[in-house]
Amino acid sequence: MECQVIEGCKIHASVRKTLIYRFQSLLSEGHVYQISFFGVGESGRDFRPTSHPFKINFDIHTSVRLVPNEAINLSPYNFVPISNIMFKDLDTSFLIDVIGILTGASAEQEFEKDDGKQKIITIELDQDGARVECAFFGMYVDEVVGYLGSVDATNVVVAVSCVKIKPFKGIIKFHLVSNN
To answer: Per residue of the chain (180 residues), what is the pLDDT tens digit?
Structure first.
């Protein structure tokens, strides 16, 4: 395999559930860290958060040190135009970010899933005339319903990060799935 240096891009980092206790107090979003004693592996095939071909795997020996006074990109988003999603052949193995004007929302519904009933709500986003539905499942349903019930939903801009493009009942939608 040819080695390639990729500077200034995002890379996925993974911490096993059994090691979260070791790193959760050491890391916070929006900072730069020096990380040493970690593994590097190929990034998975489906629903990758970055296009980087590799990911960092933390292990029990991984060391994390805050690097002070480093300038970093303050926006973690890389928005994909809705028209690209609807009218181009995008690689659906990557998670994407999307932004648009809220133009509609379904009522909260339930559907049968292997392990019981699952809550779902969909919202419609518009960006320069291109529209797409975004489906929310699990705990995200309560958040969306709560928000929509508390505000005037006229001219609301919605930004959704790290979603997968996937058909649901034959229609392409973004999916945001809870970890529960």
So the answer is: 344 555 556 788 889 999 999 999 998 877 788 899 998 888 877 777 877 788 899 999 999 988 876 555 566 788 888 888 777 777 777 888 889 889 988 888 888 777 788 888 888 898 888 888 888 888 888 988 888 888 777 778 888 888 888 766 666 555 544 333
The set of residues, in sequence order, having a beta carbon less than 8 Å from that of 54 and lying 6+ positions away, is 11, 40, 41, 42, 43
**How far is residue 96's CA from residue 107's CA, in Å, rounded to a whole number?**
25
> Tell me, what DSSP letter sits at residue 2?
-
Full-model pTM: 0.59
Distance between terminal CA atoms of the chain?
Answer: 38
What DSSP line would sit under 106-175, residue for residue? PPPEEEEETTEEEEEEEEEEEETTEEEEEEEETHHHHHHHHHHHHS--TT-EEEEEEEEEEEETTEEEEE
Mind listing the domains of the chain with CATH numbers? 12-66 (no CATH), 82-176 (2.40.50.140)
Give the burial string for 86-99 (b: 16+ CB within 10 Å, else e). eeeeeeeebbbbbb
Q: Which residue type sits at 59?
A: D
